[in-house]
Amino acid sequence: xxxxxxxxxQASPEDIRETAKAEQVDITLHAASWDLNICSLNQGIQQxxxxxxxxSIDLAAKLGALHMTFHPGKYTVKNYLTACHQENLVxxxxxxxxxxxxxxxxxxxxxxxVIPKEMLTYPEQMTQFQAKLNGELxxxxxxxxxxxxxxxxxxxxxLQHVNSxxxxxxxxxxxxxxxxxxxxxxxxxxxxxxKIDKPIVLEGMDTTKxxxxxxxxxxxxxxxxxxxxxxxx
Length: 233
What we know:
It is a single chain. The chain is an alpha/beta fold. The chain has one domain: Divalent-metal-dependent TIM barrel enzymes (TIM Barrel), CATH 3.20.20.150. It is built from 8 helices and 8 strands. It has helices at residues 3-9, 13-23, 43-63, 82-102, 123-130, 152-158, 186-193, 212-223, and strands spanning 29-30, 68-70, 107-110, 138-142, 162-167, 169-170, 175-177, 200-202. Strand 4 (138-142), helix 6 (152-158) and strand 5 form a beta-alpha-beta unit. The longest helix has 21 residues, at 43-63.
């Protein structure tokens, strides 16, 4: 589930939780992310971002989600007051970790795409950041965020405490396209991750009730016989 998606459709977390329970489906939640930045130099934006992420943590608790994935903060201006941004990242992530612990929600920080204002884009950056926190912060690896010339499997093996994989395809000009529509080496990636006992979340922007994007993902997985896990019993 994605918090923004639920807000858009005014979905009931209680109804979703009961439906998931009846269907024996586990839920994960992606926190709100639009217009948010917990590292912003603008104090108003920074504080409201924390408010919105706490709201997402509350939603995760209501859903009974396995974990909540959320985005790290970003630079307001690249190469300006770098230390201030990094301090905000540690301080405010710790605040969210402490709040999530009270709500019995597991947090998972997403490794972001390599674009100028993102702060955590490579495994070594994430590991160094995790070491500055009190309490375990898990990590979400988004396959589409890994540069096409790099290896998602190598990223996974160099990250610590990964508890979620986000799956979609990617091109040189666009992240998060339907599976089979991009340039990710999907056969190799799926062969590896289908044997890893971690939640795999199909990702894509789709606000329609028809869920055409999701259906393209599923059609690809079904055609290539990847709907079933390959984990040995």
